[in-house]
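Annual report, structural modelling task.

Input specification for the flavin mononucleotide complex:
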Amino acid sequence: MALSFVTSGQSHGPGIVAVVSGLPAGLEPDRERLRRDLGRRQAGYGRSPRQSIETDDAEILGGMRHGRLIGGPVALIVRNRDHENWGAAQSAWPVTEEELADIAARRTRTVVVPRPGHADLAGVLKYDLPDVRDVLERASARETSARVAVGALCKDLLDRIGISVHGHVVRVGSVAAPAYGDLGPADFGVLDERQVGCLDAAADAAMVEEIEGAKRDRDTLGGIVEVRAFGCPPGLGSYASEELRLDARIAGAALSIQAMKGVEIGEGWDNASRRGSAVHDELRYEGGYRRDTNRAGGLEGGMTNGEPVIVRIAMKPLPTLMKPLRTASLDTHEPAEALVERSDTTAIWAAAVVAEAVIAFELARAAKEKFGGDAIEDFVAAHRHYLSRIPWSPEAP
Ligand SMILES: Cc1cc2nc3c(=O)[nH]c(=O)nc-3n(C[C@H](O)[C@H](O)[C@H](O)COP(=O)(O)O)c2cc1C
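The model returned the following structure:
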């Protein structure tokens, strides 16, 4: 069965739900990884006070027993602790006149001032909604908590075939990390000591300064995150049909994350201005196929090529500014100031964690297509058999 998932829920509703189908029976999810990844999504310098209200955890509602998946869809919920503070304003069912009056009198009033850069305006027009809140509650990146939980399960699956996925921050506003050459999984351990998720300590400190400056000016920042996946064998994805091309799926998954506006695979943008002789990664054979460079970022012909997968994603500055931008009221059409609501100055480290999760999902989906397996041992055995057939090993010869 193909790997797929769907999420449901709003930012201040009872919680964000995910239902994942196609994970093999017998997989033993790592509870600590699930908690840790949800915690990492909430971390990073520049987040709003909401992150101290919530301490995310995922409750498994179905598909697992005694720590092992049992073959049915896995349902999970990440509860929104902040929901308690919203009362009737987030009720799924109709509310009374008194409750409506109370909602109108408090911060939870109807929102009629759409934010430039957010889903607000197009959302109310498209769905014929009376209140921008109906849009922002679902458009909000709170939804990514469920995607991170799904990503953690996918990492558990990838672990079984020796694939690991690591995100980090390479730019915040005008501050860039130094260029990195080869990195290995062990290099990402230092991120626990960083505030913004940058491998380089000096750049991480400069990024904190950059965020402080934007916060002082009541402004916001974006940046660039990078995800590297190690241990991918050649041949995940396919050139055979456009919907199977893994580079396209990864790019689509990356852009499906709120606020992501550009994707680069390998040295994609720089390669566009170079000659072919300076771009393509030459092959050698020493007990297995290898290359000395990886400008392609591990993907050729819509497939992994055996080198680490490298993806960079550009995040725009967040659209909710404490110094509101100009907008037009949905009620009066008069000039107005856009909604100001508790918001992050930047969520760049969280974005790296979410990017890690969505790319882990795409790699797990491609691996599941390649190796099949209703039971985890069948999946692992198919991978082992494949590696015994091809002249490639995860370790460089
Ligand atoms: C982890 C994460 C946290 C975010 N936090 C905020 C936030 O606090 N305030 C905000 O205005 N936008 C935030 N965003 C971005 C908005 O959700 C996004 O810009 C909006 O939904 C419009 O979608 P688009 O930018 O993809 O076009 C966040 C995005 C991510 C990935």
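The CA atoms of residues 171 and 254 lie 16 Å apart.
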